[in-house]
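Before drawing any conclusions, I looked closely at one protein's amino acid sequence and its backbone structure tokens, quoted below without any editing.
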Amino acid sequence: MPKKIDRPQEFTFSIVKQLGLIGTTSTGWTKEVNLVEWNGNPAKLDVRDWDPNHEHMGKGITLHKPETLALLEILLRNFGKDLAKAMREAEAEVTAAAEAAEAAEEPVMASEINSAQENLPQESLPACDEDGVCQEEPW
């Protein structure tokens, strides 16, 4: 017979930092990568579905920093070439838009640059000042 474990039904969470959006369903729910504090504990990397108001959530996965780094290593080992290729292609689009505008002696249209830049991966590096001192990450 399975052992019954009494667990409180209430829990708290706080999204400390939204890192990225993986996708959106037709109902408006989003699969997100965030740093989340659960029940007042230190933030962990969290991947799960959220309703548009972040009031309800689906099942997900939370990872401590060492687990996150291990996952990153696995992903880079298996998909690093694909990522590098996508970044080169996106950077080439930005460069081509700027060069085309320069050749036509027209100012670069912000919409053209923004469109090309949307394909670039979002940076998740901490902000650093000119002396190389970076802000601490929230985890």
Notes: The beta strands are 13-24, 30-38, 44-50, 57-63. The longest strand covers residues 13-24. Residues 97 and 112 are 7 Å apart (CA to CA).
